[in-house]
Write a structure and sequence with these properties.
The protein has 428 residues and is mainly alpha-helical. The chain has 17 helices and no strands. One of its GO terms (molecular function) is transmembrane transporter activity.
């Protein structure tokens, strides 16, 4: 495939690809909104309409989502390298079509779990693909900024939609009003993806042709012809930066999965209203989303490692504040701090993968990293549910705080700094 998709030569960078980049940011906001429509509502639906009280059982829908999304991430990376980015994006949105309708008409909790399996496929295929496409477009020089904008759009939309869904639920009931948002998001995303998104694999080939080895010799063994199995091994275990990023991503989403299933129930113990619970839940992804506008670009200036280490430590501290809290004020402070810690980590981890992975197998490396990261949803939901059933809601938060602190220590010891500004000079 020639690195040309139009009559004009392709160029790397944010400015020459601004129109497509902005379009992909908008589509990723719709991806995030699909999650936000249900986060405030489903735990409350489980208790009020289906009478589910066992935390582990309630959290099964988060586990189903996380496992399915993790698997879909792998196929998103593999298929986007093999067949192109745009087809994977379109297929991912087709899986979203039934989800809002299933949640509106669900007669039992099994339908909710099934809907979240489809949602996991949607999220894995679409979010992974928009990540890879943005990395393709901007090249190495602005990788952190690109990931900051991408993740800010996605999780900003999670926050806004969570808040809006909570308001709609309080005004009009838990069903169907909140889930009508998902129907609208899916229709808009299919229209934009089908008619206006352009294939970006040519930009990845251009990037590969301009690829410059690190001056310190690192990555020399990671040439462009690695097999899928070798890429999985390097990203998961062998390569220090890639594998450190994978474990930190898993722990980060362990916290998110725990919060998704547990925080609304924890907040409800203080007899807060649905709107207050929605506001508390929106604070976490809201600060997370806005913060990434700063942290992604900051990692292009000061490097990746210290932001990741500090971010995981900040998450640990935030969870301690939440575990100690017993009302709106303390929980608001804790969730905002948790969002800040996550903002330091989330786009920076993706930038690490882009720094280390060769453009020829970048899509697959992103997919493997996101497999590990999104398994955190399931681990957090199941672990949190079991501990909450055995020891209480606060105990589950304390355990997550300890795991986050350990993750920060692993990054501090094992990860090296991956950002090399001087290696990004050739931009074409």
């Amino acid at each position: 495939m020639s690195p040309r998709t139009t009559d004009h030569p392709l160029r790397l960078g944010l400015r020459p690809n601004a129109a497509q980049f902005i379009l992909l940011v908008a589509i990723n906001a719709l991806v995030g909104g699909m999650v936000g429509q249900q986060q405030t509502v489903l735990p409350l639906l489980a208790e009020t309409e289906f009478g589910l009280t066992g935390y582990t059982f309630i959290f099964t829908y988060v586990a189903a989502f996380g496992i399915t999304k993790a698997i879909a991430n792998y196929f998103a990376g593999t298929f986007s390298d093999r067949y192109g980015r745009k087809p994977v994006l379109l297929i991912g949105w087709l899986f979203a079509l039934p989800v809002p309708l299933m949640l509106i008409f669900t007669p039992n909790w099994g339908w909710v779990v099934a809907a979240n399996i489809l949602l996991g496929i949607n999220q894995g295929l679409t979010w992974s693909t928009t990540v890879v496409m943005k990395i393709d477009l901007v090249g190495p020089k602005q990788r952190g900024l690109a990931m900051g904008l991408n993740e800010a759009a996605g999780y900003g939309a999670v926050a806004v939609t969570s808040l809006l869904a909570g308001y709609l639920a309080e005004q009009y009931g838990l069903r169907p009003a909140p889930f009508l948002l998902g129907l609208a998001y899916t229709a808009i995303a299919l229209l934009l993806s089908g008619l206006f998104v352009k294939e970006t694999r040519g930009h990845a080939l251009l990037d590969a042709g301009q690829h410059v080895a690190r001056a310190d010799g690192l990555h020399d063994h990671l040439h462009a012809r690695l097999t899928d199995r070798q890429i999985a091994a390097q990203t998961s275990l062998k390569e220090p930066a890639l594998s450190s990023a994978s474990q930190a991503g898993l722990v980060n989403n362990l916290n998110f999965g725990l919060s998704w299933g547990l925080f609304p129930l924890l907040f409800a113990t203080a007899e807060l209203t649905v709107a207050q619970i929605g506001l508390l839940f929106a604070l976490y992804p809201g600060v997370w989303g806005v913060g990434q506008l700063v942290t992604g670009a900051l990692s292009d200036r000061i490097g990746r490692k210290h932001l990741i280490t500090g971010g995981m430590a900040t998450q640990a501290a935030a969870l301690v504040v939440i575990a100690l809290g017993d009302g709106f004020g303390g929980w608001a402070a804790g969730t905002a701090l948790l969002g800040a810690g996550t903002a330091m980590v989330y786009p920076t981890l993706l930038a690490v993968i882009g720094d280390v992975a060769h453009p020829a197998w970048r899509g697959r490396a992103v997919g493997i990293y996101r497999v590990w990261r999104d398994l955190g949803y399931a681990v957090g939901a199941v672990l949190g549910g079991i501990i909450a059933d055995l020891m209480g809601l606060h105990a589950a938060v304390w355990v997550a705080a300890g795991i986050s602190a350990l993750s920060a220590l692993v990054v501090a010891i094992r990860m090296y700094e991956t950002h090399q500004p001087t290696s990004a000079a050739p931009q074409g």
